[in-house]
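Human: I'm a chemist; would you kindly supply sequence and structure tokens for a protein?

Assistant:
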Amino acid sequence: MTTTAKRAQAASGHNQDLPAPASYKVSEKIAPYGQAAEGDASMNQWLNFREVFQSTPVKRIDLIRKGVNAADFKLFVSRLDIQQEKIFLMLDIATATVNRKASRNEALSQEDSEKVVGMAKLIGQVETLLEESGDPDAMQGFDAAKWLAHWMEEPIPALGGAAPADYMDTIEGQEMISRVLATMQTGAYA
């Protein structure tokens, strides 16, 4: 079965309605996005989405090389109101690998960390777009990560009717999705 067919099969159970905007109730292990837990400043930096988006490529490369902690990634994915297997499939990261590395408190590979940091960058882009163009009071409590996870499953005219999820497994695909998000701010594909 092809990756696209697997994605289509996984998406078939998706509820088409987006959840109401909500904030994460983050555990003590993962402090609010981007704040280090238990004194480890580098471990959770990828969770500060806006900072990842606005940082330099050199800083993002450093995050990727250090690796994303698999347990932190798994916990983050569990809070997206979408089956974790869908996110793992979208990013082409093996569920067994994430589970094994999470149980050992290990980092994901550089290749998998790059995909996770790329997703974090996209979430930061959504947060930044909303901050720049939205009403700050109306955005209170809006969860950009949950919104993006659901949006990526929907067919997009700018992608020829394909879903953004179909392109999340490569950095080039993530850059293309970033450009689509940027055009949404202007209303071109709203």
Observations:
- DSSP finds nine helices and no strands in the chain.
- The chain has one domain: 24-186.
- Confidence is low (pLDDT under 50) at residues 1-42.
